[in-house]
Design brief:
Structural class: alpha+beta
Radius of gyration: 31 Å
Shape: elongated
Number of strands: 28
Helix content: 25-40%
CATH topology of the largest domain: Nucleotidyltransferase, domain 5
CATH superfamily of the largest domain: ATPase, nucleotide binding domain
Number of helices: 14
Distance between the termini: 91 Å
CATH class of the largest domain: Alpha Beta
C-alpha cells in the first residue's frame, strides 16, 4: 500500500513536539549559552567541556576570524587585532571614554566607535555578532535541532542605543531575538524558580564591564522589579585597570608598546582573580624591550586600591532601595551575580550593608544564562500553564516630551514596569497652527536642557484652529525589550505620525548617574524654574491674544482705553524679558488680564450683535 505525503520532511506537527530556544549571556569578559532540557536549564559546554566562552574575537589578514579561547591565546602577541571587552563599546562614541590607552585604534564614527583591524574597521556590533554566531553554532551542535530564537541578556542600565545594537548583532549572527532580558532579572528567575524563593530580594550583579542592582519582589510566579540602578561602565575591567595603573607607578614605566599594555592588563586580571583565593600574589612578566617586572601585591593593598569602586556600587544600592521605598530590613536576601562578585571585599561590603550572608549557591558566572534559558523556553511555548510566570521589569529613567518654554512633561516615570503604554493630550500654542514638532527626552530634570534628547518628529496637516482647540494625543510605548516608540494623533482630523526611537548616540554611563543625582539635588531649583517658565508661557499667550484682538477689534476702544491696554502690555513684555521671580510675573499677568476685561466684554457684545443682525425673533 502506498503512502500519501501530506507534509514536508521534518515539518509534521507531533503532539510531543518541543521547540528549542536558547538563553545567551553576552558578557564583557565571558559569554555563555544555555537551554532547557527535561524541564531543567543547563549551560552548554564545548568539546573540551568548558562552559565559559571568552568574549574575544581575533581578526586575521586572510579574512578569517578566531574566537573564544583560540583568540584569547593571541591577546598579547596580536593586541591590535584581538578585540576584548567589546561590550563596553556598544552604542558608545569616543567622547564617552575618559581614557583612550586601548591597545587597538578607535575610529570616531557618528553614533558608535569602530575598531581598526587588519581585516578593516569593525563596529562593536560586528564583533559582538561574531561572538553570538559562535554561541549559536555551539547550541545547534549540542541540541542537534533548529534554534527558533534566543533570549539575550543585557545590563539593566543599557540605554536604547545599546539595546538596539545588541539586537542588531543578534540579527547579524542569524539569531531571532525573542526578548532582551535584563541580567539581574534573569538571575532572579533562576534563583526564584530553582529555590522556590518568595519575598523581596536584591540582585547585585558585578560583571566584567557593567554593574547592576535590582530590587525585586518574587511571589507565586510573579517577578516584579521594584527598582533598578547601576553603572554600565563599572566592572571587573576597572579593578584590573587600577592594578595596571599601580604596576606602572611602581615600576615608573612609560611609552608602552601595545603588546606591553595587554600583557600588563592580563597580569593585573590574573592577580585580581588569585587574590580572591590567597592573601598575596606575585606579578612577574617580561616586556618587549627585555625589562623584567617583578612585584608583589597583597590582598590588603588591592582592597585599599579598589575600595572607591566598591563604594561606588554601594551608592547605587542605596539609591535603588530609596527608589523602591524600602529599608535594608525589608530585603530577605541578596543574590550575587557575575564573576567579579568573587572578590572578598565585594562580598564583605554587600554582606555588611544588608546584614546577611549573600547568596552564592548558584554559580555567579552561569546564573544569568540559566535564567535566560528558562525565559526562552517559556516564550517558545514549551512550559505548561502550571509552570508559567509573569515578569514585570522596569525602565531606568523617565521618558517625556518638551513643552512650551523648554519644560519637560514626563509621560512615563522611571521604574515603571514594562511593557507599558502611556498617553497624554496636548494642544497648539498659536492660532492657525498646522504642525507640531515633538521632541522626546529622557531624564529626571524639569527642563529640557538638563535631560538627554532621544529623537524628534513632526505631526503635520493639523486643521487650522484657534490656539488650544486642537486635541493631540501622544502615546509612549515601551516594549518588553525596553525600546521606545512614540505615536501622535490629532483626534478631530485623524492626522497622525509616529517614530521608533533608535537614537544614534546613547546616554553615557556618567550621564545616567548624574541625571538621577542632579534630579534629587536640584529638585527645588527645578520647580522654581518650571514655575517661571509656566508664567512666561502664559505671558506670551496673553500678549499674542491681546495683540491679535487689537488688530481685529481695536476700533471698539477709545483712544484712552487703547493706550491703557498697550501700556500694560508693554510693561508685561518688559517683565517677561527680565523678571526671574514667577510670583512677580504672575501678578503682572493678572493685572494685565484685568485691564483687558472691559475690552473682552465689548468684543463679546460686538460678536453677538453681528450674529443677530438681520434676523427676527422667530429665526432666533
Amino acid at each position: 500500500m502506498a503512502l500519501l505525503q501530506i507534509a514536508e520532511p521534518g515539518m509534521a506537527l507531533a503532539p510531543h513536539e518541543r521547540k528549542v530556544a536558547i538563553g545567551i549571556d553576552l558578557g564583557t569578559t565571558n559569554s555563555l549559552v544555555a537551554v532547557v532540557r527535561d524541564a531543567l536549564p543547563k549551560v552548554l559546554t564545548d568539546a573540551a567541556g568548558q562552559a565559559l566562552f571568552p568574549s574575544v574575537i581575533r581578526y586575521l589578514p586572510n579574512g578569517r576570524t578566531q574566537g573564544g579561547f583560540e583568540a584569547l591565546a593571541h591577546v598579547i602577541e596580536d593586541p591590535k587585532n584581538t578585540i576584548v571587552s567589546v561590550k563596553r563599546f556598544m552604542g558608545r562614541g569616543l567622547n564617552d571614554f575618559t581614557q583612550h590607552d586601548f591597545p587597538y585604534a578607535l575610529i570616531d564614527e557618528p553614533g558608535m566607535v569602530k575598531l581598526r583591524t587588519v581585516a578593516g574597521d569593525k563596529s562593536p556590533v560586528e564583533v559582538s555578532a561574531e561572538i553570538l554566531a559562535r554561541l549559536r553554532q555551539l547550541a545547534e551542535d549540542s541540541v542537534q535541532d533548529e534554534i527558533i530564537g534566543a533570549v539575550i541578556t543585557v545590563p539593566a542600565y543599557f540605554d536604547d542605543t545599546q539595546r538596539q545594537a545588541t539586537k542588531d548583532a543578534a540579527k547579524l549572527a542569524g539569531l531571532h531575538v525573542l526578548r532582551l532580558l535584563n541580567e539581574p532579572t534573569a538571575a532572579a528567575i533562576a534563583y526564584g524558580l530553582d529555590n522556590a524563593s518568595e519575598g523581596i530580594y536584591a540582585v547585585y550583579d558585578l560583571g566584567g564591564g557593567t554593574f547592576d542592582i535590582s530590587i525585586l519582589r518574587m511571589s507565586k510566579g510573579v517577578f516584579e522589579v521594584l527598582s533598578t540602578g547601576g553603572d554600565s561602565a563599572l566592572g571587573g575591567d576597572d579593578f584590573d585597570r587600577l592594578i595596571y595603573t599601580w604596576m606602572i607607578q611602581e615600576t615608573q614605566l612609560s611609552s608602552l608598546e601595545p603588546q606591553d599594555q595587554r600583557a600588563l592588563l592580563s597580569a593585573a586580571k590574573r592577580a585580581k582573580e588569585e587574590l580572591s583565593e590567597v592573601t598575596e600574589t606575585s606579578i612577574e612578566l617580561k616586556l618587549m624591550n627585555g625589562q623584567l617586572i617583578s612585584l608583589v601585591l597583597t590582598r590588603d593593598q588591592f582592597e585599599k586600591l579598589t575600595k572607591p569602586l566598591v563604594d561606588k556600587t554601594m551608592v547605587s544600592v542605596r539609591k535603588a532601595l530609596r527608589d523602591a521605598q524600602l529599608q535594608v530590613g525589608n530585603v530577605k536576601g541578596v543574590v550575587m551575580v557575575g564573576g567579579a562578585t568573587r572578590m572578598a571585599h565585594v562580598q564583605a561590603s554587600v554582606g555588611a550593608f544588608f546584614k546577611t550572608q549573600p547568596l552564592n549557591n548558584l554559580d555567579p558566572d552561569q546564573v544569568v544564562a540559566l535564567g535566560a534559558a528558562m525565559q526562552a523556553d517559556l516564550l517558545a511555548g514549551n512550559q505548561s500553564k502550571n509552570n508559567e510566570w509573569l515578569l514585570l521589569d522596569v525602565i531606568p529613567l523617565s521618558l517625556g516630551l518638551e513643552t512650551m518654554g523648554g519644560l519637560v512633561e514626563k509621560i512615563i516615570p522611571r521604574n515603571t514596569p514594562i511593557p507599558v503604554a502611556r498617553a497624554q493630550d496636548f494642544t497648539t500654542f498659536k492660532d492657525g497652527q498646522t504642525g507640531l514638532a515633538l521632541h522626546i527626552v529622557q531624564g529626571e530634570r524639569e527642563v529640557v536642557d538638563a535631560c538627554r534628547s532621544l529623537g524628534r518628529f513632526e505631526l503635520k496637516g493639523i486643521p487650522p484652529m484657534v490656539a488650544g482647540a486642537a486635541r493631540i494625543r501622544v502615546t509612549f510605548q515601551v516594549d518588553a525589550d525596553g525600546l521606545l516608540s512614540v505615536h501622535a494623533i490629532e483626534q478631530s482630523s485623524g492626522v497622525q505620525a509616529s517614530i521608533e526611537i533608535k537614537p544614534s548616540y546613547g546616554l553615557s554611563d556618567a550621564e545616567i548617574a548624574r541625571m538621577l543625582q542632579d534630579g534629587f539635588q536640584a529638585a527645588g531649583d527645578d520647580m522654581r524654574a518650571r514655575a517661571l517658565r509656566e508664567e512666561q508661557v502664559e505671558a506670551r499667550r496673553l500678549l499674542e491674544a491681546v495683540g491679535a484682538a487689537l488688530l481685529e477689534d481695536g476700533d471698539l476702544l477709545t483712544d484712552v482705553e487703547r493706550a491703557l491696554i498697550r501700556k500694560e502690555m508693554a510693561l508685561l513684555q518688559t517683565l517677561l524679558e527680565s523678571e526671574t521671580n514667577s510670583d512677580v510675573l504672575r501678578k503682572a499677568i493678572e493685572k494685565a488680564a484685568k485691564t483687558t476685561d472691559p475690552f473682552a466684554e465689548k468684543r463679546m457684545n460686538a460678536s453677538i450683535q453681528r450674529a443677530l443682525t438681520g434676523k427676527n425673533v422667530a429665526e432666533i
